[in-house]
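Data card: per-record layout.
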Amino acid sequence: MIRIDDLYIVNYCHPNCAPFQNIMRLPEEEAFALARRLAAENADTTAFYRFADFINYYPLRMQADRFLHSAFLSLGGNPKTEHPLSFVLHGSDYLLKWFGNGLIAKIPLAKIPSEYISFTYGDSSAVLRRGGTPVMVTKETLAESMRGYRGTLDEYMKEIAEKHYYIEAQLWSDDYCAGYTHLPYIQK
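The structure for this 188-residue chain is written out next.
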């Protein structure tokens, strides 16, 4: 049986970025200036393509964050911020490559109370961009889904990856990042 509290969330960070950040927390003018700079300095890095097209990415990300905030409140969440920090449940080879095999931080899910974390199947902004509606679940709902699964954790995550690439996690309180640092990815 898969136990959700045995899992962790992973934050990927390109080496040229500051960890545990959300560009949407900046005033709009500062966000655009930072996006321009990062896109120019990292033109060949997949993670910064969205910043090269920030004129389109910014309103989409704003829409996604507003949707997620509202959905989380309706599910009984207690967000301490309007713009969550983005993580992925239990890691993602796809995102590791997307961030140039850069820095990673892992936080045990057991350390984060349900009222400060939510999950969506796949990238919430990408779902909205394709005209869909992100499906948000709570920690309890996700745990129930995992308990009902008849296979291993690796099999569960492989099925998720085939349909959605990964499970996005939204952390609604920066307090749970304290004491965790990003380390270089070491290939096994």
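Known properties of this structure: The chain has one domain: 4-184. The mean pLDDT is 90.

See the next section for split statistics.
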